[in-house]
Amino acid sequence: MRQGLRATAVFGLVACAFVPAESLLAQTAGVPGGTGYAGGRNRSAYYAEVIGRSNEVMAEWRDAWGEDDAERAASMYHPDALLMLPGRGPVVAREGIAMALGEYLPNAGRIQAGMVDFDGSDRMAYISGAFNLEMRDDRGVRHPISGQHVTVLFRERGDWRIRAQLFKPDGPVLEGPPLPGQLTVVPEGAPLAGAVEPFASWVEAWADADADGVAEFYQEEGALILPHGQPTYTRAAIAEELMDFLPASGEVEAEMLDFDQSGRIAYVMGRFEMEDSESGGTDGTVSGDHFTILFRNGRDWFIRFQMFRPDNPLPGGAPAGGGL
Asked: Burial, 207: exposed, middle or buried (Cβ in 10 Å; 0-12, 13-18, 19+)?
């Protein structure tokens, strides 16, 4: 029997115009929930509308980025948005994002991003794929940066805006000054939605180094990006990937810093720390940011997408995957 992420206990710690393939409009991974979308016959219409609106938002965002217009780019974010630029820490709120982009964009070239995965429900959707951009150093030399991104969009009063966005570079990037904005840790015991509570079970399974058991927490078509890895798709492939990774990873500690939910989809973002033989650190640990998309099937929540972004990426990372 498939094991789901059933809510049992509160766990407080725990560039682009996207052009979709036709297969995305016909996928059956997430049944839209909420106002105006009920039943499988409306699924394709829901996906078509969300992808179309996402294209509009991201095209405007891409153009503003290319013109170094931080205020216009920031207007594409939700008022309570979270942004994590390549090699930079989290920035929160539209005002903080505008300040951060004002410092970042003058040294950044145009950005390109693709979509290789998509899902949504009700007022929330997410897109993930590869990104590429260039950053200029103090001497004016441009350095290419590539990696993976995940972007969550949220609809409020008819308008779709970026609710959360994280860029994971394949390797080390140019260091920059700390960007404005900070996050407040969600306190242990805080009232959280059912999607977040079962993280405790996932953490326990991870500590047992049971690859098949951990893989059961992911959807059949789920995606996983380990700290120094590239995307792995489908539960079977994730189980195989974890068979090599878990024996050297030990326990994982996860802290939740941001969370939101709509219909049958939710996301959790926070800090993580785990043992990792490939971390390059003297203590064999790797820490960084995690970003997890969860989707509810019936009563059970499953991991739809999960990314670990290490603080210190290994040099010479593998090339980012292409779009569909």
From this structure: middle
